[in-house]
Design goal:
alpha+beta, 3 domains
Length: 367
């Protein structure tokens, strides 16, 4: 793909699909680096691009169209941004010596700040089950190895009847010290998805490439046991935010804490709190106390939990991290994580991954 076409894809991705809070964060960095300016006088002083006359939602797209350096910054941002979804695997086997060989033959490219270089986008033929000829872009740090797979997506917009073009990154993060592999990705509009297997297929394509090219094989992580242990630990940092229960008698229930600052789930959580707050009363009626405790335990033990969401608490509500865990995603033996909120950087994802994997070690030690 030539540079002109590539730039068109990136600009369209910025204008049509990048959330405003992300645009604002990127613009803030570009202004701090004096690459662009919202002030005409300062733009002239620093020889920066003047964007004072452009409407807010179009500023970043205008920057990318005007300056190749902004395209490079956007590529860099795709490594450090926060994604909406991830799946986490154990790293079972790998041969990282192959990475250098792949670099030499151009099947992996290093991220290069030179403006003449850009990511390689690959179109996926979803009718074929062969390994996709990706050329991911790599960043290698002390504790983390990043491989960014850039997927080319095109679809006819049903409203405008125009062709929508999207540069869709799928980021593989290898946490070397944890021996964990994580695949991060965002949601896409339905016009780009042929069916409901879109994300599952993408994960499989990436895993196939990693196995063929780098000899990476992965194993599942028992996220159900890890989450159960976190809940049982009952610490002040993490709390259940919501859960969907398939009950033994066939009923289904979705329980959410809502705006409850104490993170008490309705019904079951309220029953537990009722017993705790009135312990003296219930101690005087041990049979009733036992019946209620048994009732709560029976539901928790015998109910299937297709999904559950946890909240990593923070006094500042906007800094809370809420993650939904969908177990056995589309009948696969891995768990799909979904991040909520308007966070912009990868730090929250890194923290959650390390927290979960750290708790995995605790669970294994108990066993």
């Amino acid at each position: 793909m030539n540079f002109t076409t590539y730039r068109k894809f990136v600009i369209n991705t910025i204008n049509e699909f990048t959330p405003n809070y992300n645009k604002e964060e990127i613009l803030k960095e570009l202004i701090n680096k004096k690459i662009v300016s919202n002030n005409a006088g300062l733009a002239k002083q620093y020889n920066a691009l003047d964007i004072s006359h452009i409407d807010e939602e179009s500023k970043l797209g205008y920057c990318a169209e005007s300056l190749s350096s902004v395209l490079k910054y956007y590529e860099q941002w795709e490594f450090i941004k926060s994604y909406k979804h991830s799946v986490i695997f154990r790293l079972v086997k790998s041969d990282f010596s192959k990475v250098e060989d792949l670099l030499k033959v151009g099947e992996i490219q290093k991220y290069d700040q030179a403006e003449a270089e850009h990511d390689t986008m690959t179109e996926i033929n979803r009718k074929s089950y062969s390994t996709i000829p990706f050329v991911p872009t790599m960043v290698n740090l002390d504790k983390m190895l990043f491989l960014k797979f850039s997927v080319k997506l095109e679809a006819l917009n049903p409203l405008s009847r125009e062709l929508s073009q999207l540069k869709y990154p799928i980021l593989v993060v290898i946490h070397k010290d944890l021996e964990v592999l994580e695949i991060r990705f965002d949601r896409v509009k339905s016009i780009f998805k042929a069916n409901d297997l879109f994300y599952k297929e993408n994960i499989n394509y990436i895993l196939d490439w990693l196995k063929l090219k780098i000899g990476i094989t992965v194993g599942s992580i028992d996220m159900t046991t890890i989450i159960d242990d976190i809940i049982e630990d009952n610490n002040d940092e993490v709390a259940v935010h919501a859960q969907y229960m398939s009950l033994k008698m066939g009923g289904k229930a979705k329980l959410e804490v809502g705006h409850n600052a104490e993170f008490i789930l309705p019904l079951l959580g309220e029953l537990k709190r009722l017993i705790e707050d009135n312990i003296k009363v219930f101690d005087e009626s041990p049979k009733i106390k036992q019946l209620l405790n048994d009732f709560v335990s029976e539901i928790e033990l015998t109910s299937d939990l297709p999904w559950i969401s946890l909240c990593w608490k923070n006094p500042t509500k906007s800094k809370q991290v809420i993650v939904k865990f969908s177990h056995n995603y589309l009948n696969e033996d891995y768990c799909l994580l979904q991040y909520f909120g308007s966070h912009t950087s990868m730090e929250r994802m890194n923290y959650v991954t390390r927290y979960l994997v750290g708790n995995k070690s605790v669970v294994e030690a108990k066993i």
